[in-house]
Design a protein that fits this description.
With 538 residues, the chain is α+β, with helices and mostly antiparallel strands. The protein has 3 domains: 286 residues, no CATH class; 108 residues, no CATH class; 126 residues, Sandwich (Jelly Rolls), CATH 2.60.120. The chain has 17 helices and 15 strands. α17 links the parallel β1 and β2. α2 packs parallel to α6, α12 runs antiparallel to α13 and α14 runs antiparallel to α15. The longest helix is centred in the middle third of the chain and has 28 residues.
């Protein structure tokens, strides 16, 4: 697709959209096993307008494409695997697996259910051999892309480990937060579809055989379990294959409950209701750029215009990398450099001159020292549940101060605002100081006997007593570079543990940084500070 459309992502999106449309045919073929043709077709068309299915049809994710091949395989299986159909069935299951390997458990059940009746078993051999060959070719391609087996294994292990850790630590959400629920329109819709799916399995068992009904039940149970426990349970896109697979079950229930014309009409109305509710969200989705992508595009334009470098959060790096590849292909190589934000464990180097920060964690920073931050339109409250909730709150900061090491995430004190705790060697990167400006620190040491040294580029610019109150201090502009970035370190002989329940070693509490007119040449001077009696206790 890339040679035809020029944009690889657009090619994936077009293929995904085509798969979402063409999947109607295997869905209708599946439904035809237990329902008249008009009912099966109406059910197949209706599920394509389920909010989660329709909105993800053109996104370019793997879920829709994997569902397309898996459902074609299922359609072949329910109508018999005579002749070469068994080979085609195995290849379709293999294609679904290679597109989305995490679906291996339900795909394995599908393959077993389809091949158990095949006799003699040797008829399956050509498909198995071709499927294994395709898998070997796919893995070999990944090894070549990574440069070696070691590189491939390292990437695989890193991804698997990160995925497992995220599931263990960051996979919250109750029933109402499940992507299974949000993707179909909410709790009532999900409950109704669950009941209809159960009834559909019963109808399927009666009309197509108990073994076939048991296979349906097993595949549905395993898929639901996997969606809840082995993937991010709040993402509605992961439920797209299951949502599509509802079509033959709905067709069976409708045909068992009403004459064909009434059943087909009811399913058509259901699809129209889903479509009417989904269409405004679809329009919003297609007219509102993803904030993460919009921020990266603007950062590239501004960096090229101002000769600043770009600092990017690791989560937004894929957008920046993709943008760089597109620009190179169109003969527009970048004249600036980019760096991973210090928050990334892979950050090895930081900019030496002016820079722009693209972040999907704006709260983690105090904002721009010189210039206005740019925020980007985000998803509406109705659309947000159908998104992954990622890269929606994004900002572009010109010349912010970057926490480098020794800092904890910001906190908010009611009525006082945001602050950050730093340890004994907490370090920040400060952009080049504009001429005639001084850096003002709104700071208070954590109470303790050791004094706090404020070190700029290796020079102690200011020493604050350990029991000093909160104050806004303007540092001597002469210790800063006006052309290169500056290293700001809050150095203290020791940190202090607040309590038995909080074992952090705290040294300094930073309430903010700003530029002000440079004071006289004294080492530091006090400027007006918001009233505060001292450090806010953790």
């Amino acid at each position: 697709m890339s040679p035809l459309v020029g944009d690889p992502l657009r090619g994936f999106q077009l293929l995904s959209a085509a798969a979402s449309c063409l999947v109607m045919f295997p869905l209708a073929a599946l439904g035809r096993r237990v329902a008249p043709a008009p009912v099966a077709a109406a059910a197949a068309l209706a599920v394509l307008f389920i909010p989660g299915v329709w909105l993800h049809a053109g996104r370019g994710f793997t879920d829709t494409a994997a569902a397309f091949f898996a459902l074609w395989a299922a359609a072949l299986a329910v109508h018999g695997l005579e002749g070469s159909r068994g080979t085609g069935f195995t290849l379709l299951v293999t294609a679904a697996f290679l597109i989305r390997p995490i679906l291996l458990p339900p795909l394995s059940l599908l393959w077993l259910a389809g091949t158990l009746p095949v006799r003699p078993v040797r008829r399956l051999l050509p498909g198995v051999i071709l499927g294994l060959a395709a898998t070997v070719v796919a893995v070999a391609s990944l090894v070549v892309a990574q440069g070696s087996w070691a590189g491939f294994a390292s990437s695989f292990i890193t991804h698997a480990t990160t995925h497992a850790r995220n599931l263990a630590e960051h996979n919250p959400g109750g029933v109402l937060d499940l992507g299974l629920v949000k993707g179909v329109g909410g709790a009532w819709a999900a409950a109704g579809l669950a009941v209809l799916a159960l009834l559909g399995i019963v109808v399927w068992a009666r009309r197509a055989g108990r073994g076939s009904g048991a296979a349906w039940a097993a595949i549905v149970v395993v898929t639901v379990t996997q969606l809840v426990w082995l993937q991010n349970r709040t993402f509605s896109r992961y439920a797209v294959p299951l949502d599509m697979a509802l079509a033959p079950l709905l067709a069976g229930v409708a045909s068992a409950a009403a004459p064909p014309i009434l059943a087909a009409g009811t399913l058509a109305v259901l699809g129209a209701v889903w479509g009417a509710g989904s269409f405004p969200l679809l329009v919003e989705q297609h007219t509102t750029p993803l904030p993460g992508w919009a921020a990266v595009q603007l950062a590239v334009v501004e960096a090229d215009r101002t000769a600043a470098d770009v600092v990017v959060e690791p989560g937004l790096y894929p957008f920046l990398s993709y943008k760089e590849q597109l620009d190179r292909r169109t003969g527009r190589p970048w004249r600036f450099r980019w760096y991973l934000a210090p928050s990334s464990p892979d950050s090895k180097e930081l900019p030496s001159g002016r820079y722009l920060l693209v972040t999907n964690y704006p709260f983690h920073y105090f904002g721009s020292l010189d210039g206005e931050a740019v925020r980007f339109p985000t998803a509406s409250e109705r659309l947000r549940p159908l998104t992954q909730g990622r890269f929606l709150d994004v900002a572009l900061f010109p010349d912010p101060v970057l926490p480098v090491r020794g800092w904890w995430l910001p906190e908010v004190a009611e009525g006082l605002g945001k602050f950050m705790w730093g340890g004994p060697e907490a370090e920040m990167l400060v952009p080049p100081l504009p001429g005639g400006k001084a850096l003002v620190l709104d700071v208070v040491p954590y109470p303790g006997p050791a004094p706090l040294d404020v070190v700029i580029n290796g020079t102690v610019a200011l020493t604050v007593p350990g029991d000093a109150p909160r104050a806004a201090l303007a540092l001597d502009a002469r210790v800063f570079s006006t052309e290169l970035t500056n290293r700001l370190v809050f150095r203290r002989a020791e940190g202090y543990i607040p309590s038995a329940s909080d074992q952090r070693r705290l040294s300094v509490q930073l309430w903010g940084l700003s530029f002000a007119a440079a004071p006289p040449t004294s080492a530091a001077s006090r400027v007006p500070s918001p009233p505060a009696p001292g450090p806010t206790r953790p």
